[in-house]
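[Automated response] Your request has been received and processed.

Submitted sequence:
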Amino acid sequence: MQAGIFIVAGAVLGILIGYLIRKYLVTKKIKSAEARVQDIVAKAKDKEKEINIKAKERALQIIDEAKNEERELKKDLSARQDRLERREETFDAKLLELEKSKEKCKQQLQEAEELKEKIKEVKEKQLEKLEQIAGLNIEDAKKVLFKNTEERIKDELAARIRKLEAQSSDEVERQSKDLIATAMQRVSSSVAQETTITAVTIPNEEMKGRIIGKEGRNIKTVEKLTGTEIVIDETPDTIWISGYSPIRRQLCRIALEKLILDGRIHPGRIEEAIKEAKVELAKDIRKAGEEAAYQVGVVGLDPKLIRILGRLKYRTSYGQNVLQHSIEVALISKMLAAELGADAGICTKGGLLHDIGKAVDQEIEGAHPELGYEIMKKFNLPEEIAYLAISHHKDNPKNIEGIINKVADSISGSRPGARKDTYENYVQRLKELEDTAKLFEGVQNAYAIYAGREIRVFVTPETVDDLTAIKLARDIADKIEAELSYPGEIKVNVIRETRVEEYAR
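Generated structure:
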């Protein structure tokens, strides 16, 4: 019992002692924390004082800097104001000086006008005195002076003109001949002498009867479907196809050759042969257009335009095949453009297509230059290329490419053997040349020579002097250009000579 009391008392005592010890420790920690807090607060207050001192020092420094800047700014503004005031004074002085100069100029101008009027009056008085002395007015004196001067230097002037013309024309002619000859030598093209009839060879005379058919039904069917006329005469083993359109004649020729080869000739088979011939002809036309474009180096043309170009294979002009002519013009234009520094691409493509209007001019109303221009614009070709369809028929093309195209067209059309002409047209052209030259006053006679390439005009030496002869040659050339149609160019040669005959007996 007592032992239990002692245990309980010991436990209570232990708890009480622990409590007291803990309380002491807690109180000690609190005092230590309060001491640290007080120390931190004291340090913070010291730091705050230090910061405030530094801030005040910085503020004072900034104020000093601002005052210094303000003083510098005021000083700079004062200097600028001084400069402006000096400039204003200088400007006022210059303005005043300018006004004085202006007034002086006005005064000098007025004095000059007055002096000019005085000089004019003196000149008029002098002219009046001269007119009174000479008995002529100014206009009459000018006429007399010009007439006397012209009489004095007429022979000298004519000789000088001939010399200059000879020098310039010889040099230009030499260069142009070299250039054109070079271009022509590099182009060699065959010429197709087409007419309005086409020959078809048959194996025997019996075939003529089969082609005619019973009561002429076969030949009538062929003529109706092809738009041509078949002529059967006494020529052995040959029949003739007559027609204005070369394409229709070619269609009829292909169909007849198929019928002759097949041997079956009746209206039904004729229709089939003509359909087959149309397909074959269309392929041939397309192939001809493609070959022409390839030959001159032109690419990128629309397939429809290629087919229109190929139609020129069956079109002739004065006996010259138009497709071959177009190829020649394209190649010559290309060479001339390379020599003269023009656009070779435009010249080549324009030269190939310059006569494209002739592919449709027999079916559509209108002249072939305008039709060609419209066709090329329809296929979105540039204006400078489309213009070449018109330029080769203009007297003065507007650009160098147009001039080259016109020259190349003339070279291809006027070279020997390029075109054929009837005897009547040839004689008529020569007569027109001679009659045109004989219309001028002072002309004794005129002769067209060299197939109309030159006309020699003989004049009366008593009425036509050297200077008038030079002017007469130009007037005759201008009249020929304005009124006559001819290929290439015509040389006008005016001859003035005096012959004196005497006999010694």
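Summary generated for your ticket: Residues 141-185 form one domain. The chain has 15 helices and eight strands.
If you did not submit this request, please reply to this message.
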